Amino acid sequence: MTLATDTLPDRAEIKIVFSGPMGAGKTTAIRALSDIETLSTEVDNNDRLAFDKEHTTVALDYGQLKLDDGTVIRLYGTPGQARFEFMWSIVGQGALGVVLLLDASQPDALAQMDTYLGVFDAALKSGAMVIGLGRSEQPGALKIHPFRQRLSQSRAPIPLFCVDVRRREEVLILISALMCQLEVIDQQVASS
Ligand SMILES: Nc1nc2c(ncn2[C@@H]2O[C@H](COP(=O)(O)OP(=O)(O)OP(=O)(O)O)[C@@H](O)[C@H]2O)c(=O)[nH]1
Ligand SMILES: [Mg+2]
Predict the structure, then answer these.
(1) C-alpha–C-alpha distance, residues 110 and 142, integer Å
(2) pTM listed for this prediction
(3) What is the 8-class DSSP label of residue 155?
(4) Which of 2-16, 80-94, 146-160 has the lowest mean pLDDT?
(5) Which atom of ligand 1 is nearest to the CA of 18?
(6) What pLDDT does residue 39 have?
(7) What is the pLDDT of residue 7?
(8) How far apart are CA 23 and CA 25, in angstroms?
(9) 11 CA distance to ligand 1 centroid (A)?
(10) Pocket test for ligand 1, best of 17, 47, 53, 62 (most atoms within 8 A of CB)
(11) 85-90: long-range contacts (C-beta < 8 A, 24 or more apart)?
């Protein structure tokens, strides 16, 4: 994925991409956050084995969030199904940061994280990323520790939070953390 290279302060609008595996809650998170009616491209989910839910995204989600300082955050969501992998970088093109959502109740959630860290390698390296770990309270869910351990090997610190994407205030914490990350990057660029 190519990240936008402009610096933060002059921007009235920024693009953020929500990504992660099927059912992690990208569409739900964007709906929870958006000030406007979201654009969704959902169809009936014919792959209930991969994830048992009614609908799945086939192209992208789109919503908008206006911050108190007037900055408009354009929220883009990728499809989660592996057959739409080619869309992940397309939807992420030009994004300033990445919100990676994972589902701790899926046994392969750590491997999923690795996959997405690879796709969004530029964001991982610069620190323009935050991770939300969902369903961590469910019986049998993976603990947060191995995710933190894996992230401790990355070059830039990447914040990781347990989150219920159905709760707007929890998704807002992810956005706030990402904005802090972007400001730090911006200061580093300005002082280099
Ligand atoms: N019980 C429970 N349900 C959750 C939690 N987080 C998300 N969900 C539900 O999980 C589902 C997530 O679905 P989506 O938002 O469509 O997921 P998605 O990542 O957009 O999936 P794809 O578009 O198929 O890749 C929704 O029905 C949410 O209500 C949680 O913490 N607990
Ligand atoms: Mg979706």
Answers:
(1) 9
(2) 0.95
(3) S
(4) 2-16
(5) 19
(6) 97
(7) 54
(8) 5
(9) 31
(10) 53
(11) 85/119, 87/59, 87/60, 88/1, 88/19, 88/116, 88/119, 89/1, 89/2, 89/119
With a 6 A CB cut-off, is 25 part of the ligand 1 pocket?
A: yes
Among 152, 168, 140, 188, residue whose Cα is nearest residue 31: 168
How many other C-beta atoms are found inside a 10 Å radius of the C-beta of residue 125? 14
- Which of 47, 165, 171 to probe ligand 1 with, by most ligand atoms within 8 A of CB? 165
Q: Which atom of ligand 1 is nearest to the CA of 45?
A: 24
Band (3; pLDDT cuts 50, 70, 90)? low
**Top mutation candidate among 17, 18, 19, 28 for ligand 1, by most atoms within 8 Å of CB:** 28
3-state secondary structure of 95: coil
Residue found under tokens 């048992």: 52
4-19 confidence digits (pLDDT tens): 555 565 668 999 999 9
Is the Cβ atom of 24 under 6 angstroms away from ligand 1?
A: yes
Of residues 145, 144, 171, 148, the one with CA closest to residue 158:
148
**Is ligand 1 within 6 A of the CB of residue 26?**
yes
Statement: residue 1 has pLDDT above 90: no
Q: Among residues 167, 91, 106, 100, which one has the least CA distance to residue 128?
A: 100
Least Cα distance to 113 among 3, 17, 19 occurs for 19
